[in-house]
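Quick one, tokens below. Sequence please?
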């Protein structure tokens, strides 16, 4: 009789034991993704129902699938559907931009708002409105993209990215906060000294989804789509870069090209979303951290979850802003600030920030 060469506690059992948690994690990610999609569908419908005039489910349903000349039909099609679709476009862009910039810089506190990328886009839009008298989104989208790109590159080089060693998270954060503060100050001064810029940017600067049409969104969609595709394409390489540039290069990753594509993706996503919705902060910080706590540090999964959870948070904040005051609406950018500040404090107080 031939004796077994596989001891009871050998490699085979070790693989089986290791395979069970991996399979369980994969199942949890899939179930969580389905649940997030269902929750997003519910929130989309709530966004169509809740507002200055609450509308019952039946009215919204009939307005979606039939054509009438009622006042409720006009509210849904002229106001609530456009702002909901804009949230579904800008939310993923903000969330994914945050996920990419956190993975690219290996900085868990990175966010397009905190690091000044949104401030760069806002400053460029202020120039377009105040100096060049440009008021249409299809025109100043180019200023927003250029401003976001220059801010991103400037922060990277100021923090020491041109050297042989990658900048530390603290260096990038300090450079970004300084850049954001300087650009915000200049943008505010420009708005206060130029009545045209002040009037044109009053509602936009705090971040708002209201009083915008789908015609404002269409010119931006190609930029957001390209930014999302680039981010999803480089996600596996960012997994390898989490172990360091040298390790990633040994695995066949072209680190320099991934960084360039990452910067292009951040510019398109943050610049495009800021152009349509204003410089909304904390979405890009909160969402990647929240999903990372649930699904782990795998970048492709973080990116996919960010595409779904970010518009969910943005729409919920927008709904809260519509009902929190009886006298009118609170812009969504203010609500995300109230929600994001406690999240940032929790991150600071955690002994170990969720790993990248």
């Amino acid at each position: 009789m031939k004796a077994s060469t596989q001891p009871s506690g050998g490699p085979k059992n070790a693989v089986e034991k290791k395979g069970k948690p991996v399979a369980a994690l994969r199942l949890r990610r899939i179930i969580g993704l389905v649940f997030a999609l269902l929750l997003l569908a519910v929130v989309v419908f709530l966004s169509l129902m809740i507002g200055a005039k609450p509308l019952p489910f039946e009215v919204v349903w009939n307005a979606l699938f039939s054509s009438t000349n009622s006042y409720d039909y006009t509210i849904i099609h002229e106001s609530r559907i456009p702002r909901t679709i804009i949230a579904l476009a800008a939310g993923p862009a903000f969330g994914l931009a945050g996920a990419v910039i956190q993975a690219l810089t290996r900085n868990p506190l990175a966010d397009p708002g905190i690091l000044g990328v949104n401030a760069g886009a806002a400053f460029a839009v202020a120039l377009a409105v105040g100096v060049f008298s440009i008021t249409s989104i299809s025109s100043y989208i180019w200023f927003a993209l250029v401003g976001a790109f220059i801010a991103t590159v400037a922060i990277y080089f100021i923090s020491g990215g041109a050297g042989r060693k990658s900048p530390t998270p603290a260096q990038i954060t300090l450079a970004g906060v300084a850049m954001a503060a300087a650009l915000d100050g200049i943008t505010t001064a420009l708005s206060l000294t130029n009545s045209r810029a002040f009037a044109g940017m009053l509602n936009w600067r705090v971040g708002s989804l209201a009083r915008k049409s789908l015609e404002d969104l269409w010119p931006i969609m190609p930029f957001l789509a390209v930014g999302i595709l680039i981010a999803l394409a480089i996600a596996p390489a960012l997994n390898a870069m989490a172990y360091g540039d040298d390790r990633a290069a040994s695995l066949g990753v072209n680190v320099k090209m991934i960084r360039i594509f990452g910067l292009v993706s951040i510019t398109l996503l943050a610049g495009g979303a800021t152009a349509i919705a204003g410089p909304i902060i904390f979405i890009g910080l909160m969402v990647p951290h929240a999903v990372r706590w649930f699904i782990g540090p795998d970048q492709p999964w973080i990116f996919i979850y960010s595409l779904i959870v970010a518009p969910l948070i943005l729409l919920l904040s927008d709904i809260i802003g519509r009902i929190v005051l009886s006298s009118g609406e609170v812009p969504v950018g203010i609500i995300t600030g109230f929600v994001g500040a406690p999240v940032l404090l929790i991150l600071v107080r955690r002994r170990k920030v969720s790993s990248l």
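The CA atoms of residues 42 and 312 lie 10 Å apart. The chain has 14 helices and no strands.
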